[in-house]
Amino acid sequence: QVQLVESGGGLVQTGGSLSLSCAASGSILRLNAMGWYRQAPGKQRDLVAGISSDGRTKFGDSVEGRFSLSRDNGKNSITLQMSSLKPEDTAVYYCRGEGFDGDYQPFGLWGQGTQVTVSS
């Protein structure tokens, strides 16, 4: 079984920084796109940042220039570096991973979610 395990998050003041990490584990044949989404109360889940297997990144408009995303293919992991955080960045952040497992079956998985709270 493939799993996504998230770490990081927490409480930070406006203007501060935080990092979130996500690692995929289990029987993985190929890990394609990975990324972070976020969902605030009463709102839809939106893309924060995504990264392809070859390192191409895409960012949501509201975080462009403030967040960065890196990937370690050897560890099947990604790290989201968040800076200049604003109260509107407060949300539950979810890791997403897509690929093929050891049985050649496609998967698209979500992590359990981690809370990020930015105080004003």
**Using DSSP, what is the number of strands?**
11
C-alpha end-to-end distance: 41 Å
Which radius of gyration do the C-alpha atoms yield? 14 Å
Low-confidence region ranges:
none
Overall residue-averaged pLDDT value: 97
> What is the H-and-E element order?
EEEEEEEEEEE
Shape: elongated
Instruction: Indicate the structural class.
Output: mainly beta
Percent range for helical residues?
under 10%
Please describe the biggest sheet, giving its number of strands, its sense, and whether it closes into a barrel. Answer: 7 strands, mixed
In percent terms, what proportion of residues is strand?
over 45%
Q: Total helix count?
A: 0
Folded structure, characterized:
By secondary structure, the chain is an all-beta fold. The chain has strands at about 5-10, 10-15, 20-25, 30-40, 45-50, 55-60, 65-70, 75-80, 90-100, 105-110, 115-120. The strands form 2 sheets. Strands 2, 4, 5, 6, 9, 10 and 11 form a 7-stranded mixed β-sheet that branches. Strands 1-3-8-7 form a 4-stranded antiparallel β-sheet, with no helix packed on it. It starts with a strand and ends with a strand.
What is the secondary structure topology, with strand pairs?
Blueprint: E1 3-8, E2 10-13, E3 18-25, E4 28-39, E5 46-51, E6 57-59, E7 67-72, E8 77-82, E9 91-101, E10 106-110, E11 114-119
Parallel strand pairs: 2-11
Antiparallel strand pairs: 1-3, 3-8, 4-5, 4-9, 5-6, 7-8, 9-10, 9-11
For this entry, give a set of tags:
120 residues; mainly beta; 7-stranded mixed beta sheet; 0% helix
